Amino acid sequence: MGLKKCYVFEVFLIGLLLFSIQELEAHNYAAGKPKFFNVVNYGAIPDGMTDNSKAFLKAWNDACEWKGRGRVYVPKGTFKLGEVLFLGPCEGHTAFIIKGILKASTDMSSLYGDSWINFRYVDRLTVGGGGSLDGQGAIAWPRNDCKNNPNCQSLPTTMKLDFITNSKVHNLRSIDSKNSHFTLFGCSKMNITNIRISAPGDSPNTDGIKIGSSDRIDIRNSIIGTGDDCISILSGSKNLYISNVVCGPGHGISIGSLGKYKDEEDVMGITVKNCTFKNTTDGVRIKTWAAPSMGNAYNIYYEDIFMDGVENPIIIDQEYCPVSPCNQQESSRIQISYVTFKNIWGSSKSASAVTLRCSKRKPCKNIVLDNINLMSSPDVGQLFSSCFHVHGFSYGNQSPYSCL
Ligand SMILES: *[C@@H]1O[C@H](CO)[C@@H](O)[C@H](O)[C@H]1NC(C)=O
Ligand SMILES: *[C@@H]1O[C@H](CO)[C@@H](O)[C@H](O)[C@H]1NC(C)=O
Ligand SMILES: *[C@@H]1O[C@H](CO)[C@@H](O)[C@H](O)[C@H]1NC(C)=O
Fold first, then answer.
1. How far from the centroid of its chain's Cα atoms is residue 346's Cα?
2. SUPFAM superfamilies, alphabetically (predicted)?
3. Which numbered ligand comes closest to the C-alpha of 378?
């Protein structure tokens, strides 16, 4: 063998070796035995009273440092837990398996804050296990004065996921959050499935799943009943796919509100399919403030949606003003375009079943109503649709009669 040939062969061998090592590691990650880090072995006590934050954090740190499939394991029982930050990045594929009930604090000192359980900077995280998160919200709701106080102190979100990628959250229950149940920020490629969310219909700001600045989020097969939006889609949300969700009570699946802050990112590529709204104030909604911030919301698709006694089944509101007075001399500069409402049927609890109230400055473009079959709930007069500054088309059945 010549020197050159020998060298080439060597490089080939080294390449093969490196490739095999990589294969082996990938194999270990995917098929290797998971390593369990049971919180009880770190001193957690499931008596519903002891604060277990330290034990949980230690278990997380060990699982996160495990170069394979590290799993924090929370067995059956009621574990009281304070505010915790589960910080990545982790070495392997980390999972957080909750079989029992995690119970938030009701201490006055820990009433306010950003989040109760916060996962941050983790790739390939799994959170699940069939257990519950009890936010103990009833003690906090009377202290929520955000409706009248613009500088109100924030109450904690039950589970906040910041910068989480290639991950899934499934088989979990969230009850009585103090603020939102789940919040996603800066996340991408996540699957959220088989989640049950519940809080009373009149609990303040208890959004079900709130999403901002996130891409490729899939939400399926979930049941959400709460006091605010079932799903709230905020600026920077892109490529969301929401299907088989039952919402109610609550304020529906909402895009927005948009346009309140400067330099908001666009919202685009939102699909909502095969969902049911039961006794909600709104069904499918897009809301923007009549404020000077610019932006766009486009490529939005709603299909196969059943409305069961919904006050505003279909609504675009570009003069959103939850608590008047709002500064409505302005008109919204958020451009809404390419929005399709297809196969939407059921009952409306108000006569105004379809409302497309767009901005005078930025009229809505390419809005499509395709096969709308809404009837009035008992004691509601004849349904109507109303259009302001909208360009679009309607196809198929239109009940109420289309204003487009
Ligand atoms: C999410 O679901 C899709 C399709 O069901 C699947 O291809 C993808 O691998 C899943 N992602 C994660 C992180 O589980
Ligand atoms: C509808 O929701 C309201 C407010 O949450 C509640 O008071 C009412 O009992 C609900 N009605 C039905 C039929 O579920
Ligand atoms: C539509 O969603 C319901 C649950 O809300 C589910 O039972 C049904 O299988 C779904 N249909 C399709 C075609 O996915």
1. 25
2. Pectin lyase-like
3. 2
